[in-house]
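so the lab meeting is tmrw and i was supposed to have these ready like two days ago... anyway. pasting both below. for each one the top line is the aa sequence and the line under it is the structure tokens. i havent really looked at them closely yet so no promises
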Amino acid sequence: MQATRYKLIELFIIFILIPISFAFDYAPILKMIIGISGFIYITYVLFKIEKIKLLIKKDINWRVFWQSTIIKLLIIAAITTIFVWYTDKENLFTVMVNKPKLWIFILLFYSLFSVYPQELLYRTFFFKRYKELFKSESLFIFINALLFSLAHLFFKNTLVLLLTFIGGILFAFTFKKTKSTLLVSIEHSIYGCWLFTVGMGSMLGFPS
């Protein structure tokens, strides 16, 4: 009972209180201290308490993963291309065409230093640490996606919250199916890089 209460409090602080606090304007250095401290704590719990080992699974069905990811990407690409065409045509593929070096740099930096830590926290840590607290698997996935969306509250953009909630659902299902931080990170990178490429990067904090 005490362990359950502790985990609920932990979940509230890490995934609700801190993300909401980051949406307010206060000293950036304080936000950095909170973020670094939180990451150190999560890393400690993940590896020392939960005994997670980040090994690449040998039984990954790459064919099924790529088929599923490409189909979803094509749907996302069609919808977002039409959206940017009608709402912000000047930015459609503008960074890729006009600043290819920046485009490549951002794709690599984002994939390595943004996506992987996010998936380590919101899928690997969250699933291992809190799954037993929820009797309903559907509710667990919904909460995971909702909290992933909440992490982007500091952008103060309703469309960002919607997109990250949908992304959270997709990533949660992928992790549930594959149990692979690597695969869900690859999928996350692909969709995020596409949004930057198609011209929706500015609202997600990408330089343009």
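ok protien two:
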Amino acid sequence: MNAEKFPKIRPVTLADREMTVAFFDQMGGESRSFFNRADGNRNAMLNCFDTPNLNRRNFIAVETMPDGTERIAGLVFLWALNTKTPWLGIAVAEDWKGKHLGRELIAYAREYCLQHEKCGIFLTTHMANLRGQGLYTRCGFQHLGTEKSGELLFFMPFADKAPTEDGTI
């Protein structure tokens, strides 16, 4: 797949607050229910603009519109970066769904984790998020089970970074 057709992915900057608000505002009902219940992820993203969180990294895919303005086509974030297995969150703009931007965002997060010597990535998703589950499986995540919250737990191991039998990395 030609990555040039995707918007450029880059770290979020302080200047991206307005675009971030607009991104969450454009979410449809399915995205809100699976990704932003009770505005949890929206608030976590916006809090990072006010109080930088050194244990979290936020990245956005920025699309340039025909009028020259920019907007967020997708976002991916990692938290628990002080561990060998951070957690991932991902969302794609409604009009970018089905165009493989999610795969590109996950690949970007994976590369970031590999560069920072992580051994894998965790994520959870709602059991009704079949589209997300398919994406995660295609990208190399393995379904591990169900959390106490009822969310499905997925893990993407990095084969060359796996812990040894004694637990060292």
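from a quick look at the 2nd one: The helical segments are 17-25, 29-35, 40-50, 101-115, 130-138. The chain has five helices and seven strands. will dig more after coffe
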